[in-house]
Amino acid sequence: MGRRGVTGAVRGGALLVVGDVITDVVARHRGPLAPGTDTAAAIRTLPGGAGANVACWAARRGGVEVRLLGRVGADAAAWHERELAARGVRPLLVVDQEAPTGTVVCLVDEDAAGERTFLTDSGASLRLGPGDWSDALLDGVARLHLSGYLLFTEPSRALVAVALKAARARGVPVSLDPASAGFLVRLGADRFLTLVEGVDVLLPSRDEACLLAGSSDAADAAARLSRHVPLVVAKQGAEGALLARSGEVCARVPAVRAVPRDTTGAGDAFTGAFLAALLAGADPEQAAREGCGAGAQAVQRTGGRPPALD
């Protein structure tokens, strides 16, 4: 077994991401939507999903093998496998013969700094359950990352519990991205924190951190959450990132300047690059700097993925 770094990760092993694989329909428009009539837009269909995006950005950073466990419908399984492989990810996709692949309609307002609104049909992605898990998935794995979307349905919550137990038994550290402030409201902060017990790194957005901690200040929220999770990395978009441990903010990392075209997947890009950097031996602050760099790259692209590898 390789040498452990400051975060507990075993250097030289793979990153296993467990999460959602989604088909994104991205509609870029200017200004408010026109109810009851047409709004001109540029529309593209792209591969997405928070878990899949994280895996692709981790592979883009390089230096680590990246695997992805997800569930897709038979309608788009082959396409998603090709798209993941083209970005350096080893796809471990379960094909659902009943439910279609999840679809998200992303409405991107070009007059509002690329801000986006999501219409989400999770489809097969949230049918991922304990029956799709095998402890053998952790063979050769140095870190497990879980998409927070897994906490929003009963089957996938059960999978999270099984995966966390297996990771603890093997000494594999686990990170988690809460994924959606909207869904967290329904789940509840107390329930969320109970479900993620045993996670060593939490990567919320500013809104997610504030919601979970019951605070309107991101730094205070990150500090409070770090009493529950050993390391909290709060992603703040154009304001960079905050790192907190043991109830205190321990580092502030500035953002990398970029002109945003589409903010879809920026947080996933940060997470992917951050985790890959940790596994390559970076300390958390340096890993967060790499995460900010990846986030800046992401907002200059349409969709949530990096380009395919050469």
UniProtKB/TrEMBL annotation:
<keyword id="KW-0418">Kinase</keyword>
<dbReference type="Pfam" id="PF00294">
    <property type="entry name" value="PfkB"/>
</dbReference>
<keyword id="KW-0808">Transferase</keyword>
<dbReference type="InterPro" id="IPR011611">
    <property type="entry name" value="PfkB_dom"/>
</dbReference>
<dbReference type="InterPro" id="IPR029056">
    <property type="entry name" value="Ribokinase-like"/>
</dbReference>
<protein>
    <submittedName>
        <fullName>Carbohydrate kinase family protein</fullName>
        <ecNumber>2.7.1.-</ecNumber>
    </submittedName>
</protein>
<feature type="region of interest" description="Disordered">
    <location>
        <begin position="291"/>
        <end position="310"/>
    </location>
</feature>
<dbReference type="InterPro" id="IPR052700">
    <property type="entry name" value="Carb_kinase_PfkB-like"/>
</dbReference>
<feature type="domain" description="Carbohydrate kinase PfkB">
    <location>
        <begin position="15"/>
        <end position="307"/>
    </location>
</feature>
<comment type="similarity">
    <text>Belongs to the carbohydrate kinase PfkB family.</text>
</comment>
<dbReference type="InterPro" id="IPR002173">
    <property type="entry name" value="Carboh/pur_kinase_PfkB_CS"/>
</dbReference>
<dbReference type="GO" id="GO:0016301">
    <property type="term" value="F:kinase activity"/>
</dbReference>
